[in-house]
Amino acid sequence: MRIGEIAALVGVTSRAVRHYHHIGLLPEPLRRANGYRVYGIRDAVVLARIRRLTELGLALDEVRDVLADDSGRELAEVLRELDADLARQEHELRRRREVLAGLLEGPLTPDAPLSPALAELLRAAPATASPSAAKDREHLILLDSTVVGSDAVFTALRHIAEDPAVLSVYGRLDELDGAATDDPRVAALADELAAAVPDAVLAAIPDGGPVATGFGEALLADYPPAQAEVVRRVMARLAVRMRERAS
């Protein structure tokens, strides 16, 4: 058989056969005096196996490993790994469809797409024109995109977001814009905010927390001095509580 014939027999393209030769996956057959390759049944068997393995989703390097192991043990191992990888992809596809379904259920905002947990949290929060509330929303969106496991944090924050008293807190934080870091309101507001964070929120924070990703530094830099001091003190108090929980 010539290259076009073996390709047609197995159901691949001549270009694919040449590529398999080029990367050493399919051994070169004997050539006639005129330079044409001559393929036999054994070549077709190997080529057909390559096609079946690639259709299963194996990469060509994995196919090479399988073909090099006549006992078949390598194939079983590779197929188990492939099955686990497909299961992970299946889970990720389900998760992404859930996110899309959540987006389609509600009005699409300029902030979209958001995780379902954050979308629910923002819908639960009272409407306000507070600059601090707007900044808080931006920070939550950043957290949503950069920290794995933030969904649990957003779910735990629902209790705080639904409390009308949160508007008063935002207002008091707004009033510190332009104030000095030693303003007496700073310590009082920081104490109140730290105490208002329930243990459920701390329990939901992933190991290492947002600070490990640089989120904490970016958060502080986004506030004017007095407001940043409030946030810094709150973060410090929460870090202490988290260490106490872990000990």
Automatic annotation (TrEMBL):
UniProt keyword Signal, yes or no: no
Protein name: MerR family transcriptional regulator
InterPro entries to which the protein is assigned, alphabetical: DNA-bd_dom_put_sf, MerR-type_HTH_dom, MerR_fam
Pfam families: MerR_1
Gene3D superfamilies: 1.10.1660.10
Keywords assigned: Coiled coil, DNA-binding
Top-level lineage group: Bacteria
Claim: Transmembrane is one of the keywords in the record: no
Domain HTH merR-type, first and last residues per copy: 1-69
